[in-house]
Amino acid sequence: MIFFQIVGKNLLHRPTRSLLTLSGIAIGISAVVALTSIAWGFQKSWERADSARGADLILMKITTRDPMGAPFDATLREDVMKLPQVTDASGLLSDLVSIEDSAPVLVFGWEREGFLWKHLRLTEGRWPKDDGENAVVIGSVAAGIMNKKVGSTVHIEAEDFTICGVFESDAIIENGCLVMALPQLQRVLEKAGKITYLYIKVAPDTTPAQLDQLRQTIKSKYEGFRALTSGEVARNNTAIQLAKAMSWATSLIALFVGAVGVMNTVLMSVFERTHEIGILLAIGWRRSRIVRMILYESTALSFLGGLAGIGLGVASVKIIEALPWMQGKIEGEMSLKLFAIAAGVALGLGMLGGLYPAYRGSRLHPNEALRYE
Fold first, then answer.
1. Are 149 and 139 in contact (CB under 8 A)?
2. Degrees (nearest 5) of the Cα angle 239, 242, 245?
3. 157 in the Ramachandran plot: left (φ > 0), alpha (ψ -120 to 50) or beta?
4. How far is it, in rounded angstroms, from Cα 272 to Cα 264?
5. Could you say which DSSP state residue 98 is in?
6. Are 186 and 198 in contact (CB under 8 A)?
7. Residue 88's pLDDT is what?
8. Alpha-carbon distance 360 to 128, whole Å?
9. pLDDT in tens, 60-115
10. How many CB atoms sit inside 10 A of residue 73's CB?
11. In the structure, how many helices (H) and strands (E) does the chain have?
12. CA count, 13 A, side-chain hemisphere, 232
């Protein structure tokens, strides 16, 4: 008990300095939580959207790193429909488009008779009547942000489209987008006869082995194409990979600064308590116990900063999600796994930041330490 009382007393000896160090750790951990949560949430949102559309496989061109997918000839659908186990296929074209004064919005073009529409829930209005109608349906979140309703007009590229319906989806990304008939978007984007993804359904009795065989057939038959699951499409998306890389790069910088702060605080504490450490060594404390005392101090400081950082990170994500220009575009992925990683990083920082001060403290000679003023 006395051992831990000494650890607590040392942390409270310079409360302002300890609080500033704790704040530095909290900022670093909050960066880890917020940025990682957003990156994971971005991936989960795309996975959820792809899964909700009811496809077993998604065919895409992999010879490009374009995050929106590389356009290819929509006539490939007819050839894919002839493959064993394939029961249906539906093409999709997508792009980020500036709409009036709002931030760029994701716009999808779907085959009007395809199965991609089935997972959406129409809350107002109707679906587009045919491929020739200049009409779009808008997600509920996008409608709220853009202040649009059924009958409103939206200016997309150089054309005006009438909103004929408002829908909701289980995927937040779709709630923040617009959907129109595929030929309309092909015309607007000047990509006639092109799609970026082909969603494929297979027979219900298809075995995993048959599904793998179908994927291999597509890979060998169509050079430069792959048939992936919804999770694989999201993991291979350049934008998601970049978001993850940027989140960790930014977090590592913040964590490095936090680790230096912990080391500086604990090292200064060791210097100021040289005389005290000399007394502890003189009365029989082992050097290993001095090491544990200093490491406990740095670890406790970091862990408390980590807890504060987790709370700050969660609050930051909620604030970002609520921003008008971010609604319908991102959602944080909060989980026990993320919090465990953050807490583990905080403990690791404490250990790392306390190693050198612990070494210095344990190497003090009792006689010299007792004469230190």
1. no
2. 155
3. left
4. 12
5. -
6. no
7. 93
8. 74
9. 887 656 566 788 999 999 999 999 889 999 999 988 887 777 677 889 999 988 89
10. 11
11. 13, 12
12. 11
Q: pLDDT over 70 for what percent of the chain?
A: 81
Which of 220-229, 277-286, 302-311 is the least confident region? 277-286
CA distance 74 to 194: 5
For 254-282, the pLDDT digits (tens) are 777 777 777 777 777 666 666 666 676 67
Confidence of residue 7 (pLDDT cuts 50, 70, 90): low
Paired tokens of 273: 């308590």
- Only one residue has tokens 């993850």, namely 244
For residues 79 and 218, the answer to whether their CB atoms sit within 8 Å is no
Count of Cβ atoms closer than 10 Å to residue 180 Cβ: 27
Provide CB contacts within 8 A for 204, sequence distance 6+. none
Among candidate residues 100, 90, 69, the one with its CA nearest the CA of residue 163: 100
Q: How many CB atoms neighbour CB 176 within 10 A? A: 26
pLDDT value for 109? 92
| pLDDT for position 178 | 93
The full DSSP string for 24-72 is: HHHHHHHHHHHHHHHHHHHHHHHHHHHHHTT-SEEEEE-S---TT---E
Asked if 99 and 147 count as a contact pair (C-beta separation under 8 A), the reply is no
Q: How far is CA 23 from CA 28, 266, 294, 313, 361, in A?
A: 9, 15, 20, 13, 25
**What residue ranges in the chain does DSSP mark as E strands?**
57-61, 72-73, 86-97, 105-110, 121-125, 135-139, 153-156, 159-168, 178-181, 194-195, 197-202, 225-228
The residue type found at 330 is I
136 phi and psi angles, rounded to 5 deg: -135, 160
d(C-alpha 213, C-alpha 95), whole Å: 31
Separation of alpha carbons 261 and 268, rounded Å = 11
Tell me the residue type at 201.
Answer: K
Interhelix angle for 336-362 vs 15-52, to 10°? Answer: 150
Q: Are 52 and 44 in contact (CB under 8 A)?
A: no
Residues 95, 101, 102, CA angle at the centre, nearest 5°? 50
Q: Dig out the tokens for 206 from the structure.
A: 């298809």
